[in-house]
Write a structure and sequence with these properties.
Elements: E1 15-20, H1 25-30, H2 34-42, E2 52-57, E3 60-67, H3 71-76, H4 82-87, E4 91-96, H5 101-114, E5 129-132, H6 139-157, H7 165-179, E6 182-187, H8 190-193, H9 197-203, E7 211-217, E8 223-228, E9 230-234, H10 243-246, H11 254-268, E10 274-284, E11 296-298, E12 304-306, H12 314-326, E13 332-337, H13 341-347, E14 352-355, H14 359-372, E15 376-379, E16 396-397, H15 406-415, E17 423-427, E18 431-432, E19 442-443, H16 448-459
Parallel strand pairs: 1-3, 1-4, 4-5, 8-10, 8-13, 9-10, 12-16, 13-17, 14-15
Antiparallel strand pairs: 2-3, 6-7, 7-10, 11-12, 14-17, 18-19
Helix pairs in contact: 5-6, 6-11, 9-12, 11-16, 14-16
Organism: Acidimangrovimonas pyrenivorans
InterPro entries: Leucine_aapep/pepB, Macro_dom-like, Peptidase_M17_C, Peptidase_M17_N_1
Protein name: Leucyl aminopeptidase family protein
Length: 461
């Protein structure tokens, strides 16, 4: 189980953390003991968003005051209270006063996520301050979300030397065992026998055998199938990336990491649904077995694909997995992948673009994302661009020339493999380029919390 901080015992004593907005500071100070008010004035406390000040008392530490978010900072900075969690001394703390339900959940989750440490290779100092969860917080749900996010971060942060297809399968085995799920894997040449030829084609050049990992959990309710891109390292293949382009390619399995983290949330909270997770796990390497530019592959669905760039491999492995998913006609199929640089150019690293043809899904996701502070942005399945992915010599082109609308054309490519089911595709980044509250630099989940929040509405749970 991923390591995250726990909430303080609800019956334990805790010091108060006062959240004070800048425009309410003067009124708040009037209600404080003169010594406290004088101390804050003397130390120049202005209640700027994120500003923290400890409060002395007769017996030592009496509490702390923290500059709460105003409208501008709330729009710019999620999980601002994580700055308090990181800055407070050891002990139990509780938020003084009442918060609205969304704010208290954000505070509780932000506090736990602020305590995340990736310490596999270098020891780190644990977070000293523990939070006594605000009244009304569903602590089990928040802890489940934090644990799912921590699993995603751990997997993305692990270098490819220690996380290839075999190790990604092992992580799924551990997850399945924890929640009593069924797991199987189709490996190496078995992929050809099981009609998963494009997963095999992408992964066959590596000394680390490609595989399809399948997890199933739950016996009743609507069926949800999650498909995550598991390219454990991406050299680009024969269309090799420059050295600078490979520096973050350990994160190219971020889609797989994110769906496994989301699956953990779902199973921990025992949602009444049937869950299926499909992860095509490969390493896009170079050898005499590597696929070549202009090769034509035949997919599981029977559609032929001209390989015009071996570095556009993610959509190939996802296509076979999506075709497999669609054969059972689940109530909802979701694919998540670190798929295109074009998505990063369009919306940057902080937004998770998603595609769907269903307006109700889009509205539900947008509302859930705002509630749980997991930003997503709808992009269009733009039908007029369908011709761009049709090369003439084959049914589909994995890397159309021209350079325009790269994320859209990749999404359109994937949509060709899902016909019977409602479908959402996420083109995520999976990486936090600079530290932010509750999000250290490195691997990060995107879209999973929004989906988790929206599932009851999407599936009628």
């Amino acid at each position: 189980m991923p390591s995250i901080p726990a909430f303080a015992d609800p019956d334990s004593p805790a010091l108060p953390l006062h959240l004070v907005a800048r425009d309410g500071l003067a009124a708040w100070l009037k209600d404080q003991p003169p010594a406290v008010a004088e101390w804050l004035r003397a130390t120049g406390f202005e209640a700027k968003p994120g500003e923290l000040r400890l409060l002395p008392g007769e017996g030592g530490l009496a509490g702390a005051v923290f500059g709460a978010a105003d409208a501008k900072s709330r729009a710019r900075d999620r999980f601002l209270i994580a700055k308090a969690a990181a800055g407070l001394p050891a002990g139990n703390w509780q938020i003084a006063g009442d918060l609205d339900p969304a704010a208290r959940d954000e505070a509780a989750l932000g506090w736990l996520l602020a305590g995340y440490r990736f310490d596999r290779y270098k020891a780190g100092e644990p977070q000293a301050a523990r939070l006594k969860a605000p009244a009304g917080v569903d602590t089990a749900r928040i802890a489940a979300i934090a644990a799912g996010e921590a699993l995603t971060r751990d997997l993305i942060n692990t270098p490819a030397s220690d996380l290839g297809p075999e190790e990604l399968e092992a992580a799924a085995v551990v997850l399945a065992a924890e929640f009593g799920a069924d797991l199987r894997a189709i490996r190496g040449d078995e992929l050809l026998a099981e009609n998963l030829p494009m997963i095999h084609a992408v992964g066959r050049a590596s000394a680390r055998a490609p595989r399809l990992i399948e997890l199933r959990w739950g016996g009743t309710g609507p069926q949800l199938t999650l498909v995550g891109k598991g390219v454990c390292f991406d050299t680009g293949g024969l269309d090799i990336k420059p050295a600078s382009g490979m520096l973050l390619m350990k994160k190219d399995m971020g889609g797989a990491a994110t769906v496994l983290g989301l699956a953990r949330m779902i199973m921990a909270q025992e949602l009444k649904l049937r869950l299926r997770v499909l992860v095509p796990a490969v390493e896009n390497a170079i050898s005499g077995e590597a696929m070549r530019p202009k090769d034509i592959l035949t997919s599981r669905k029977g559609l032929t694909v001209e390989v015009n760039n071996t570095d556009a491999e993610g959509r190939l492995v996802l296509a076979d997995a999506l075709a497999l998913a669609d054969e059972e006609k689940p109530d909802l199929v979701v694919s998540m992948a670190t798929l295109t640089g074009a998505a990063r150019v369009a919306v940057g690293p902080d937004l998770a673009p998603f595609y769907t043809d269903d307006d109700d899904i889009a509205v539900a996701l947008a509302g859930a994302a705002a509630t749980v502070r997991d930003p997503v942005w709808r992009m269009p399945f733009w039908d007029p661009y369908e011709s761009i992915i049709e090369p003439g010599i084959a049914d589909l082109d994995n890397a159309p020339a021209g350079g325009f609308a790269g994320s859209i054309t990749a999404a359109l490519f994937l949509r060709r493999f899902v016909e019977a089911s409602r479908y959402i595709h996420f083109d995520i980044y999976g990486h936090q380029p600079a530290a932010a509250p509750a999000r250290p630099k490195g691997g990060v989940g995107q879209g999973a919390r929004a989906l988790f929040e929206a599932l009851p509405q999407l599936l009628g749970l």
